[in-house]
Amino acid sequence: MRIDWSERAVTRFDKAVGYGRVAFGIKAAQRFYQRIKHCEALLALNPQMGKVEPLLVGRKYEYRSLVVHEHFKMIYRVDDARDIIYIIDFWDVRQEPQTLTDGVSDTKR
Hints:
Blueprint: E1 2-5, H1 7-24, H2 26-45, E2 51-52, E3 63-69, E4 72-79, E5 84-92, H3 97-103
Parallel strand pairs: 1-5
Antiparallel strand pairs: 2-3, 3-4, 4-5
Helix pairs in contact: 1-2
């Protein structure tokens, strides 16, 4: 399946990598980046590997989440008809849950 990242997810991912570079160094940020890209590749092969995200149950789409780091989840939905996985958010789990539920809308992306 093809992976399509929303602008929100890309922005949050870039911010996390940038923070990691400043706080932990370039090598740690590169390892973090590679880990996320590896999870993305695994997800493309097995779209159902993430759990149904409990904070987003009852929405128009079924949203799933994949823990990709102890502090981050990839929030996504699968469009089987188009053969696309939409990564909706790259969510820092240390935030209030309301930030996730408010930020995810039931639009195409």
